[in-house]
Q: What sequence folds into this?
C-alpha cells in the first residue's frame, strides 16, 4: 500500500509517475549495486534486553505457581487486592504513645506497632493475617488520634515508555491500549519474528557503490548521469541500535534477488518502527512489540530501485515469493502494508502464498486500502485476507477514532487500527516513526542542476498516514498475542476481532470491520465469568 | 465412588433394625464435610483450571426431628487458581499465563426425610436452596473487572447415613445443584455457552451427635 507521505505527497507522486514513464524505455541489464557491509554506525543507545518470561514455558508455570504460593493477597471491599497483616497509620503529632497504643488496641487485640520505616511519615501497625485490614483501618480513622489509616493496597506496574515523542506525538499507541498491554507483557513479543514485506528496511550499516544513469523527469527535464557514486547507508538507530543489533532475522530482497533488502524509500523502515521501534530507551518514539525479531523482506521497488535498475519491479510474483520465503524462514507474523486494486480473483499466486503461510502457522496483517476517495475500488490482497482465517485486512482510524478519509470501506475490512489523518488534525494526526530524512534521500525532487547522489544515513521521526500505518499496529499486537500463548493464526484473528472495540454501526461493518484493535483486552483473554 | 458403594452395602448388611435403638425426638448435630464436585460448566472450568472436577470443604449443622425429618445448613468453599484463557469457536483453548483465582462459597439450606429402614444406615433425600457467593480475581485487573457476586440456586440430594458410633455418623450422598446468573454473561462461560455454576457433587460428612 503506497503511503501518503506527510511532506511530499503531491510532488512525490508526480515525480514517481514521471520516473516510471521515463524509465519505461530503459534496458534492465541486471547490473547490480555493490554493497559493502561497513559504514557509518547508527546512534548507539541502550535498549531493554530480551527476557525469558515467555508464557507457556515450564519456567513460567513455575513462576506462577511460586507466586501463587508466596503472595497471599486479600481482596478488599472494592475488589482491590491488599497485603494482609498490616495497616498504614499516620498518627497526629499530638497523640501520645499511650493514645497510640489505645487506638491500636481498640481495633485489634493483635495490633502491634512496627518500627518506623525509612522514607515513611506513617507507621505500620501489624495485625493478625486473618483480620480484615480494611475494616481495621476504617475503625482507626474514626479515632481522634489518627490522621489517616489505610490497608496496604498492592501496586502494579503501569509501564509508560520514556521515549520523549511517545508522550507528545504518539496518540496512536494509547488508543489501542498499549500501555496496559505492556503491563501484561513487558517483554513485548521477544521470541516472535515478524516479517515486514515492504520496501525493505534500514537494518544495517553499509556503503553502496552504484552507477547513476541519466534520466528524464515527468516534465522532460534531463537529469545528468552522476557516474559511479558512493552512497552511505545506515541502520535506523531506533530499529537495530544498541543491544538490538541481533534482532534481524533472515533478511531477503526479492527486488534485487539478494540477502540485503535495503530500504531506499523509507516506508518499510517506518512500518517496521510501528511494529518494533526500540522503546523505553529515552529516544524518539515507541513501537508496539518492541522486542520482536524483525525479518526484512523487500518486495516493493521504489524510485531508487528503478533508477539503479533493479531486476524486479515489485509485483505479484515478488510478493507471493516473499510471503512463502517468510513462512519458510521462521516468521510467525507477516505485515503487508502493501496491496493493489483490480478485479476479483486476479491474484491467485498471492492468494496461494497467503494460504500457504497461514497453513504454516503464520498470522498476516494486511492494509485494507487507501482509495476511499478514489472510487473505493476493490483491494485485491485485502480482499483475499477477508477470505482466509488467520489473515486480516486492517482499515485506518484517525485520532478521534473516526473513519480516516482515505481508508477503503468494503466487505473485506476486518479490523481497524490507527492510520492517522491530516484532516482536520494537521501534522498532529500523523503516525510518527523513525525513518529517512527525505531531504537527503529524495534528491530526484531537486532541479537537475542540483541533482546529487542520495544518502541513506540521516534519520528523522517522519509522519505518515495510511492503512499502511494501521496494519503494523495489528501485526505488533498479534506478535504479542503469539508470545502470550495463542499460537494459531486463526485463533489470533478470532481473539483480535472478539476483543476489538466496536466502532460505527453496531457489530461488524464495512468501515471499521469488527472494530478498533484493543491490545490489552486481547492479551488479557477471558476469565470464567468476565 | 465404587468403593464407597461397596462399603455402603457391607454396612447395610450388618445393620441392626432401627427399633433396636431409642432415637431422640430432637437432635442437633454439627458436621464437617468434603465434596468432590463435577461442575456443569465443563468447558469453562477446563479452560481455566484444566479440569472440571474439584473439591469443596466445609461444615454445618443438622437438626433431626423424630428421627425422620432433617433440616441442614451447610457452608463450604472452593478456591482454585488457574489461568485466563481464550477459547475459539471451534473449542481450542489457549491459556495465557495470567493467574486467575476463583472462589465459590455456597451456603445451602435443605430439608428432607430419613427413612428408618435400618438401625445403622438411614437412606435420606432432601431438597433446598442455596446462596452462592462467587469471586473471581486475576492479575492486571481493574476492580470492576473482578467479579464478586452472589446468586441463589437450588439443590437436591440423596444418600445414606451410617452410624459408626452412638455419637458419630458418616454420611455419603450425591447432590445436584443448579446456580444461574453468575456464569454465561461474559468470559469463557459465555464463549462456551455455559451458564450453570452448579453441578453434581459426591459429598461426605462426618457427623457428631445422635
A:
Amino acid at each position: 500500500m503506497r503511503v501518503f507521505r506527510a511532506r511530499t505527497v503531491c510532488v512525490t507522486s508526480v515525480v514517481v509517475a514521471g520516473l516510471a514513464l521515463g524509465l519505461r524505455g530503459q534496458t534492465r541489464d541486471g547490473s547490480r549495486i555493490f554493497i559493502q557491509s561497513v559504514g557509518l554506525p547508527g546512534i548507539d543507545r541502550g535498549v531493554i534486553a530480551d527476557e525469558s518470561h515467555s508464557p507457556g514455558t515450564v519456567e513460567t508455570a513455575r513462576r506462577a505457581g511460586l507466586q501463587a504460593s508466596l503472595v497471599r493477597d486479600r481482596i478488599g471491599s472494592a475488589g482491590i487486592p491488599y497485603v494482609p497483616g498490616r495497616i498504614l497509620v499516620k498518627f497526629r503529632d499530638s497523640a501520645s504513645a499511650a493514645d497510640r497504643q489505645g487506638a491500636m488496641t481498640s481495633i485489634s487485640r493483635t495490633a502491634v506497632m512496627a518500627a518506623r520505616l525509612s522514607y515513611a511519615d506513617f507507621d505500620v501497625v501489624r495485625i493478625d493475617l486473618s483480620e480484615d485490614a480494611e475494616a481495621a483501618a476504617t475503625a482507626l480513622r474514626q479515632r481522634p488520634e489518627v490522621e489517616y489509616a489505610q490497608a496496604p493496597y498492592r501496586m502494579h506496574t503501569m509501564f509508560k515508555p520514556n521515549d520523549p515523542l511517545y508522550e507528545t506525538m504518539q496518540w496512536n499507541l494509547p488508543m489501542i491500549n498499549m500501555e496496559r498491554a505492556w503491563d501484561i507483557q513487558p517483554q513485548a513479543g521477544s521470541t516472535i519474528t515478524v516479517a515486514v514485506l515492504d520496501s525493505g528496511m534500514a537494518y544495517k550499516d553499509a556503503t553502496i557503490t552504484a552507477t547513476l544513469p541519466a534520466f528524464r523527469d515527468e516534465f522532460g527535464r534531463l537529469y545528468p548521469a552522476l557516474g559511479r557514486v558512493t552512497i552511505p547507508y545506515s541502520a535506523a538507530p531506533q530499529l537495530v541500535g544498541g543491544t538490538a543489533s541481533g534482532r534481524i532475522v533472515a533478511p531477503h530482497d526479492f527486488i534485487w534477488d539478494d540477502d540485503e533488502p535495503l530500504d531506499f524509500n523509507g516506508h518499510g523502515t517506518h512500518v517496521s518502527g510501528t511494529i518494533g521501534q526500540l522503546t523505553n530507551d529515552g529516544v524518539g518514539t515507541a513501537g508496539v512489540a518492541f522486542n520482536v525479531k524483525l525479518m526484512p523482506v523487500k518486495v516493493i521497488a521504489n524510485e531508487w530501485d528503478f533508477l539503479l535498475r533493479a531486476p524486479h519491479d515489485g509485483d505479484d510474483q515478488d510478493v507471493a515469493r516473499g510471503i512463502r520465503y517468510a513462512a519458510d524462514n521462521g516468521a510467525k507474523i507477516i505485515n503487508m502494508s502493501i496491496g493493489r486494486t483490480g478485479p476479483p480473483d486476479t491474484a491467485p499466486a498471492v492468494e496461494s502464498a497467503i494460504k500457504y503461510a497461514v497453513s504454516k502457522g503464520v498470522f498476516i496483517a494486511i492494509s485494507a486500502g487507501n482509495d476511499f476517495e478514489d472510487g473505493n475500488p476493490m483491494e485485491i490482497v485485502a480482499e483475499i485476507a477477508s477470505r482466509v482465517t488467520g489473515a486480516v485486512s486492517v482499515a485506518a482510524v484517525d485520532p478521534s477514532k473516526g473513519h480516516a478519509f482515505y481508508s477503503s470501506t468494503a466487505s473485506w475490512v476486518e479490523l481497524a487500527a490507527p492510520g492517522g489523518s491530516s484532516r482536520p488534525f494537521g501534522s498532529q494526526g500523523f503516525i510518527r516513526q523513525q525513518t529517512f530524512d527525505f531531504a537527503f534521500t529524495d534528491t530526484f525532487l531537486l532541479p537537475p542542476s542540483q541533482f546529487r547522489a542520495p544518502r541513506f544515513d540521516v534519520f528523522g521521526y517522519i509522519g505518515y498516514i495510511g492503512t499502511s500505518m494501521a496494519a503494523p499496529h495489528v501485526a505488533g499486537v498479534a506478535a504479542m498475542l503469539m508470545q502470550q500463548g495463542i499460537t494459531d493464526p486463526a485463533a489470533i484473528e478470532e481473539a483480535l476481532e472478539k476483543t476489538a472495540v466496536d466502532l460505527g454501526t453496531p457489530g461488524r461493518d464495512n468501515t471499521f470491520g469488527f472494530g478498533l484493535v484493543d491490545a490489552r483486552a486481547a492479551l488479557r483473554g477471558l476469565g470464567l465469568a468476565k | 465412588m465404587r468403593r464407597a458403594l461397596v462399603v455402603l452395602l457391607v454396612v447395610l448388611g450388618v445393620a441392626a433394625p432401627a427399633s433396636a435403638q431409642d432415637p431422640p425426638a430432637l437432635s442437633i448435630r454439627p458436621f464437617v464435610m468434603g465434596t468432590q464436585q463435577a461442575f456443569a460448566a465443563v468447558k469453562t472450568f477446563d479452560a481455566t483450571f484444566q479440569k472440571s472436577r474439584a473439591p469443596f470443604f466445609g461444615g454445618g449443622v443438622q437438626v433431626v426431628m423424630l428421627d425422620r425429618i432433617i433440616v441442614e445448613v451447610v457452608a463450604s468453599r472452593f478456591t482454585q487458581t488457574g489461568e485466563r484463557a481464550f477459547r475459539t469457536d471451534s473449542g481450542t483453548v489457549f491459556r495465557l499465563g495470567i493467574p486467575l483465582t476463583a472462589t465459590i462459597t455456597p451456603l445451602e439450606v435443605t430439608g428432607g426425610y430419613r427413612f428408618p429402614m435400618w438401625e445403622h444406615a438411614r437412606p435420606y433425600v432432601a431438597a433446598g436452596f442455596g446462596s452462592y457467593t462467587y469471586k473471581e480475581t486475576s492479575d492486571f485487573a481493574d476492580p470492576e473487572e473482578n467479579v464478586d457476586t452472589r446468586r441463589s440456586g437450588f439443590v437436591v440430594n440423596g444418600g445414606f447415613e451410617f452410624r459408626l458410633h452412638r455419637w458419630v455418623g458418616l454420611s455419603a450422598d450425591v447432590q445436584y445443584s443448579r446456580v444461574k446468573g453468575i456464569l454465561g454473561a461474559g468470559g469463557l462461560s459465555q464463549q462456551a455457552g455455559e451458564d450453570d455454576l452448579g453441578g453434581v457433587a459426591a459429598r461426605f460428612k462426618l457427623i457428631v451427635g445422635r
Chain B touches chain A through 45 residues (CB under 8 Å). Residues 10 and 107 of chain B are 33 Å apart (CA to CA). Confidence is low (pLDDT under 50) at residues 8-20 of chain B.
